[in-house]
C-alpha cells in the first residue's frame, strides 16, 4: 500500500517528510518522492528505496515550510522515476500525491487529450491532477473548489494531497476509501496514511472521513464535505506508543503481515477485477507478454 506524509508549519518540512516516509516503508513500495514549496514548486522523485531518494538530494537546497511525500506501490504504470509521485500538473503549479485507484481515469484522460493535454506518466494520478487543473482554468476558481468539482465526477478510491505554488500557505487533502489522519500541532499540521509519522510530534489527531475535504494552514484546520459545508473536526488523543502503531497492535510484524493478507489481496485487485463483467485487467502483465 502506498504511503503519504505531508507537513505545513514553521519547521523545515523535508526532514519531517523524509523521516515519515521511512516510517511508512513497512507498507511496501517501489518508488518515493517529495514536493516542496521552496522559491516555487520543486518535485523530486526516484524509483527504489527512500534511502536512494535521500542520497540523490544531498547538496540540494530543500528549505521549505510546506511539503508532501509519497511511497508508491505501482498500480497504473511500471515502477519508474516518471511514474513515481508526486506528479505535477501541466502548468507546473500544482503537485499531488494519491493513494487508491481512479476507475474512470481512461475516460477522463481521453477528454483531456482532446483538449491538448500531454501526459508524462502512465498513472491515473496525473490524469486526476490535470483534470483538477482543467476545472480550475475553465471555471476561474480556486484549487479548493476545483478539487470539490473534480471529486464529484471521480469513480474509485482515493486519498489526495495537493500543493499549490500560488497558495504556498495551504495544503488541500481529500479522502474516499483510503485512510488519512491529520496531526494537530502547535502552529503546525501533519498529514499521513497512519499515525506512525505523526506521533513523534503530536498525539492530537483528526481522522478524515470519506467525502471530506481538509484545508490545512500552519495555524488553521478546516474540514468540509463535498457540498462545501463546514464540519467540526473531532480531535482525538493518541494513547499508544510509536512501536505499537507501526505493528498495528500485533505483537510483531510477521503476525501483522499475516492478518493483513486479505486487505492486501483486495488492494491488489482494486481497479483490476470487474465482477459485473467477469474480467480481470492486468495491464502490467499484458504489456510485457512477448518481451
Question: Can you characterise this structure?
Answer:
This protein is of the alpha+beta class. The protein has 2 domains: 3-244, Aminohydrolase, N-terminal nucleophile (Ntn) domain (Glutamine Phosphoribosylpyrophosphate, subunit 1, domain 1, 4-Layer Sandwich); 253-288, no CATH class. Helices cover 29% and strands 29% of the residues. It is built from 8 helices and 17 strands. It has helices at residues 13-23, 50-56, 105-114, 124-139, 143-153, 242-246, 253-269, 283-288, and strands at 3-8, 31-37, 41-47, 66-72, 87-88, 94-102, 156-164, 171-176, 181-184, 189-192, 204-207, 212-217, 220-225, 230-231, 236-237, 273-274, 279-280. The strands form 3 sheets. Strands 3-2-4-1-10-9-11-15 form an 8-stranded antiparallel sheet, with helices on one face. Strands 5-6-7-8-12-13-14 form a 7-stranded antiparallel sheet, covered by helices on one side. A two-stranded antiparallel sheet has the order 16-17. Helix 3 crosses helix 4 (124-139) and helix 4 (124-139) crosses helix 5 (143-153). The longest helix is centred in the C-terminal third of the chain and has 17 residues, at 253-269. It is globular. The two termini are 28 Å apart. The model is unreliable at 287-291 (pLDDT under 50).
Spell out the key features of this protein.
single chain; 291 residues; alpha+beta; seven-stranded antiparallel beta sheet; 17 strands
Give a nutshell description of this structure:
By secondary structure, this protein is α+β, with helices and mostly antiparallel strands. The chain has helices at residues 13-23, 50-56, 105-114, 124-139, 143-153, 242-246, 253-269, 283-288; strands at residues 3-8, 31-37, 41-47, 66-72, 87-88, 94-102, 156-164, 171-176, 181-184, 189-192, 204-207, 212-217, 220-225, 230-231, 236-237, 273-274, 279-280. It has 2 domains: 3-244, Aminohydrolase, N-terminal nucleophile (Ntn) domain (Glutamine Phosphoribosylpyrophosphate, subunit 1, domain 1); 253-288, no CATH class.
Amino acid at each position: 500500500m502506498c504511503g503519504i506524509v505531508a507537513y505545513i508549519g514553521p519547521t523545515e518540512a523535508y526532514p519531517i517528510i523524509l523521516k515519515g516516509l521511512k516510517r511508512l516503508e513497512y507498507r511496501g513500495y517501489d518508488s518515493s518522492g517529495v514536493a516542496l514549496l521552496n522559491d516555487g514548486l520543486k518535485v523530486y522523485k526516484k524509483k527504489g528505496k527512500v534511502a536512494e531518494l535521500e542520497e540523490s538530494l544531498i547538496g540540494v537546497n530543500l528549505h521549505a515550510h510546506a511539503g508532501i511525500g509519497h511511497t508508491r506501490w505501482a498500480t497504473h504504470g511500471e515502477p519508474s522515476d516518471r511514474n513515481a509521485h508526486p506528479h505535477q500538473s501541466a502548468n507546473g503549479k500544482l503537485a499531488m500525491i494519491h493513494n487508491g485507484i481512479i476507475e474512470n481515469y481512461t475516460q477522463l484522460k481521453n477528454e483531456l487529450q482532446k483538449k491538448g493535454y500531454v501526459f508524462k506518466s502512465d498513472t491515473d494520478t496525473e490524469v486526476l491532477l490535470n483534470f483538477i487543473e482543467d476545472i480550475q482554468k475553465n471555471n476561474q476558481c480556486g484549487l479548493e473548489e476545483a478539487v470539490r468539482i473534480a471529486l464529484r465526477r471521480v469513480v474509485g478510491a482515493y486519498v489526495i494531497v495537493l500543493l499549490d505554488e500560488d497558495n504556498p500557505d495551504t495544503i488541500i487533502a481529500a479522502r474516499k476509501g483510503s485512510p488519512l489522519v491529520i496531526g494537530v500541532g502547535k502552529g503546525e499540521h501533519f498529514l499521513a496514511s497512519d499515525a506512525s509519522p505523526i506521533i513523534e510530534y503530536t498525539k492530537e489527531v483528526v481522522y478524515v472521513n470519506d467525502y471530506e475535504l481538509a484545508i490545512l494552514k500552519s495555524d488553521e484546520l478546516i474540514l468540509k464535505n463535498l457540498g462545501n459545508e463546514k464540519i467540526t473536526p473531532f480531535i482525538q488523543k493518541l494513547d499508544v506508543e510509536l512501536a505499537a502503531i507501526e505493528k498495528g497492535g500485533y505483537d510483531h510484524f510477521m503476525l501483522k503481515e499475516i492478518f493483513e493478507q486479505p486487505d492486501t489481496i483486495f488492494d491488489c485487485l482494486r481497479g483490476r477485477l470487474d465482477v459485473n463483467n467477469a474480467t480481470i485487467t492486468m495491464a502490467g502483465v499484458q504489456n510485457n507478454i512477448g518481451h
